[in-house]
Design brief:
MetI-like, 0% strand, membrane, mainly alpha, elongated, MetI-like_sf, transmembrane, ABC transmembrane type-1 domain-containing protein
Length: 141
């Protein structure tokens, strides 16, 4: 569900590039690739980067898709393959809050895990905002 959103917002970022930039580069003798690489991508890069980081942030907080893909509550080692089981914070929170045998005792752990997830998503969003601001300042002025 995240990849189509990233693609759509990246397309919108590419559509915001004025047509005159493309036409001007082509009129000066640049090939299509040179026009895209030197004019279109630098102008659209802040939007593409922001959409990618926000998509990653959005995916970090989703629980439903990972329930069916191979998530585990606890693993003693890191996964080494794409096909290995993995751990995820949203699933960890879900198990601690609903299916643990001693919910009252693990509630502080669930709150701590939730705080870590919120801080992670907040930091990703803040990074996207800062990078977008810096790139807009760099490319637009």
């Amino acid at each position: 569900l995240t990849l189509p959103w990233i693609i759509a917002t990246s397309e919108e970022a590419l559509k915001t590039v004025p047509q005159s930039y493309r036409e001007g580069a082509l009129a000066l003798g640049a090939t299509k690739w040179q026009a895209i690489r030197s004019n279109v991508l630098p102008y659209a890069f802040p939007g593409i980067l922001t959409s990618s980081i926000l998509g990653l942030s959005r995916a970090a907080g989703e629980t439903a898709p990972i329930l069916f893909t191979g998530v585990a509550f606890f693993l003693p080692r890191l996964p080494y393959s794409v096909f290995d089981q993995f751990m995820a914070l949203p699933y960890h929170i879900y198990i601690l809050s609903t299916q643990h045998h001693a919910i009252d005792q693990v509630r502080p752990l669930a709150y701590g895990t939730t705080l870590v997830l919120i801080l992670l998503v907040f930091m990703l969003n803040l990074t996207a905002i800062i990078l977008r601001y810096r790139f807009r300042k760099k490319f637009y002025i």
